[in-house]
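Notes from hallway chat w/ T.B., transcribed later so I don't forget. T.B. wanted the structure written out for a chain they're using in a teaching module, and asked if we could keep both sequence and structure tokens in one place. Agreed to drop them here.
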Amino acid sequence: MNDYLLDTHAFIWSVFEPEKLGKRARLVLADADTRIIVSSVTFWEIALKASVGKLTLTDCTPEELPNVAEIMGFERLALEAEEAAAFHRLPKHTHKDPFDRMLIWQAIHRKLTLISKDGEFPAYGSLGLKTLW
């Protein structure tokens, strides 16, 4: 059994617009035996984007999303001090978004498959990143 980490857009879409998810991602999310994880990094990214007007949530506030994740059966993942401190070891490649890069690092560090549509993520496959869409 694989454990899966949701990228921020995958989490948002799973909550508000599941039809936007890739077919394989929808199948994984529908499997009751699959462990789906949402990082605290995702909640931070959503809160930041909502605060600067780059993201509008309908009928929900950023503060409510951790509970929404729990209701959906998703586990929450904290950012550990050790993985934050070791983050400097992740090569930059072409991806510069700090939230995405930390999710990539958490997925590699914890051996999770990252559910994401981001086409730049496979560049980290040589470092152990597994992706699914």
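Follow-up for T.B.: The mean pLDDT is 93. Might be a good example for the class.
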